[in-house]
Write a structure and sequence with these properties.
The chain has 192 residues and is of the alpha+beta class. It is built from 8 helices and 7 strands; from the N terminus they run αβαααββαββββααα. 32% of the residues are buried.
Length: 192
């Protein structure tokens, strides 16, 4: 992985970690870069040469739980410069193998350039609740709550993060500008 992509991934993961902590959620890093830190520095050929088990290579970035430990999520964080058909297709390919191993999964998707004509935090970050269904990657549609094939995903029909994580729909978070600051920082990644 090149340095710019590694940096963008680390920043967006830190943003999610900080936002969850601010909302009172517990977050435990899981990704292979966290559990076996040395692999993050390896060139791709050496990393693949390790022949690590698929479940280890495809670990989600985080395990998150609410204060009462009654609800939990496996969370993957993705940053993309923009959302378009190529982004959707690339994410389908990269997520399908992961979701086959770790399901259900919630994917935070940050974009640097919003496809939305509205200016609000959900214009730059969305959540996709994803699962495999008969070999097809599906996501939970924001309007009707049903799971539909990923090939029908567009940024706007993914869910707002606060609809998946109600703890983020908190007046204290809005008052502290935590959500706005999170988005502002992630949008700045387009300059890297």
């Amino acid at each position: 992985m090149n340095y710019q992509n590694r940096l963008k991934g680390a920043v967006t993961q830190s943003l999610v970690r900080s936002l969850f902590a601010q909302a009172g959620l517990t977050i435990v890093p899981l990704g292979i870069e966290e559990t076996i830190r040395e692999v993050a520095e390896l060139p791709l050929t050496k990393y693949l040469g390790l022949n690590l088990p698929l479940a280890l290579r495809k670990l989600p970035d985080f395990f998150a739980t609410d204060r009462d430990r009654t609800t939990h999520w496996l969370v993957e964080v993705k940053y993309r410069r923009e959302w378009n058909d190529a982004t959707r297709d690339e994410l389908e390919q990269s997520l399908s193998e992961q979701v086959s191993t770790w399901s259900p999964l919630v994917v935070f998707i940050f974009v640097g350039e919003t496809p939305s004509r509205f200016v609000q935090p959900s214009s730059w970050v969305r959540a996709a609740q994803v699962k495999m269904d008969n070999g097809t990657l599906k996501f939970k549609h924001c309007e009707n709550g049903t799971y539909v094939p990923w090939s029908q995903a567009n940024f706007i029909n993914l869910q707002r993060v606060q609809d998946v994580f109600p703890q983020l729909n908190n007046s204290e978070l809005w008052a502290s500008s935590a959500l706005d600051l999170t988005i502002e920082i992630s949008r700045g990644l387009t300059r890297i």
